[in-house]
Amino acid sequence: MEPDESLSRLRADAAQKLGSEDVDAYSLDELDARIALCRAEIARCEARKAFATRHRASAEALFRKS
User: Fold this and answer.
1) pLDDT at res. 1
2) How far apart are CA 19 and CA 28, in angstroms?
3) pTM score above 0.90
């Protein structure tokens, strides 16, 4: 297995575990905390995606000018 495949599998496993966890026994406070954590993670991913998009656009613009 290639290192990239292993990393992809770990990422997929973590996301799958989070999505398949039984939350029926969680209290309202625990659910609120989990929702806040998920929202924070979504915001972090969106910020990284925005950075990567800007970075790619900058690189493409640089190489087009040459």
Assistant:
1) 56
2) 18
3) no
CA-CA distances (angstroms) from residue 32 to 5, 27, 37, 46? 34, 9, 9, 21
Report helix, strand or coil for 52: helix
Q: What is the pLDDT of residue 65?
A: 66
End-to-end CA distance of the chain: 39
Write out the two tokens for 32: 């609120």
Delimit the domains of the chain by residue range. 24-66
Q: Which residues of the chain have pLDDT under 70?
A: 1-3, 65-66
Residue 14 near residue 25 (C-beta atoms within 8 A): no
Task: Give how far Cα 30 sits from Cα of 3, 14, 20, 23, Å.
Answer: 35, 19, 16, 9
Contacts of 26 (CB under 8 A, 6+ apart): 34
